[in-house]
Specification:
By secondary structure, the chain is mainly α. It has one helix and two strands; from the N terminus they run E-E-H. It is flat and about 55 Å long.
Length: about 70
């Protein structure tokens, strides 16, 4: 069983799946995502807004060009 490094803080990702197995996982995650959005869409959007507001504001230099 082989794995590849995952994102920081997450376990390694399996690399031994067949394309069909990877597709099955992808499809399952897609159904979960769509269902969660239908059930909690407005709450998720509000939580996301709250999270963005709570973060630090980026440094702003009015003399710096775009």
């Amino acid at each position: 069983m082989s794995t590849a490094p995952g994102p920081p803080g997450l376990p390694p990702w399996p690399t031994h799946w067949s394309p069909e197995q990877a597709l099955a996982v992808f499809e399952c995650l897609q159904v979960m995502r769509e269902t969660l959005w239908q059930l909690y869409g407005p709450q998720v959007q509000q939580a996301w807004r709250d999270q963005l507001r709570a973060g630090p504001m980026p440094d702003f230099d009015p003399d710096e060009p775009f």
